[in-house]
Design goal:
This protein is of the alpha+beta class and 141 residues long. The protein is 65% helix and 13% strand.
Length: 141
């Protein structure tokens, strides 16, 4: 097998293609794939807020990366950060009404990209792919 067809290279190429498609589609809305992901996670969280530490775990990224994403979303008015009342050292990212509207408006971009990515795969094949990707992620965690 050549390097271009290795599992790692194919996964990277798929990730790059998804990011490019999503980021191009979201450019007009002044959002990135990761920023939309944060809005979606917050929308589906009770209280529409999370500790930044929780966002790090969900997105498997470092603290400086989450802080940068959250700061940019706050500058755009889509989230607001507040101190956790139970621990003033902890910052919470809270979805604003404007962020909720933006999230719901742009959610279709994400679902359309997901549908395009798995086009041609049966439901069973999609579930098998997800199962295998979870194993791969676990192996590297």
């Amino acid at each position: 097998m050549n390097h271009e067809e290795s599992c790692g290279m194919l996964v990277k190429q798929v990730q790059d293609a998804v990011a490019k498609k999503l980021n191009n589609s979201l450019r007009e809305s002044d959002l990135t794939q990761v920023q939309l992901g944060v809005l979606i996670v917050l929308e589906h969280t009770e209280g529409k807020q999370l500790r930044l530490k929780e966002l790090e775990k969900i997105f498997h990224v470092s603290q400086p990366t989450v802080v940068g994403v959250v700061d940019r979303l706050e500058e755009k008015g889509f989230i607001r950060t507040v101190r956790d009342p139970s621990d003033k050292r902890v910052r919470l990212a809270r979805l604003t009404e404007e962020g909720l509207k933006k999230c719901r408006h742009e959610y279709d971009v994400l679902t359309d990209t997901e549908a395009l990515m798995v086009r041609g795969l049966s439901e069973a094949e999609q579930q098998e792919l997800i199962r295998m990707l979870r194993i791969m992620r676990g192996n590297l965690a």
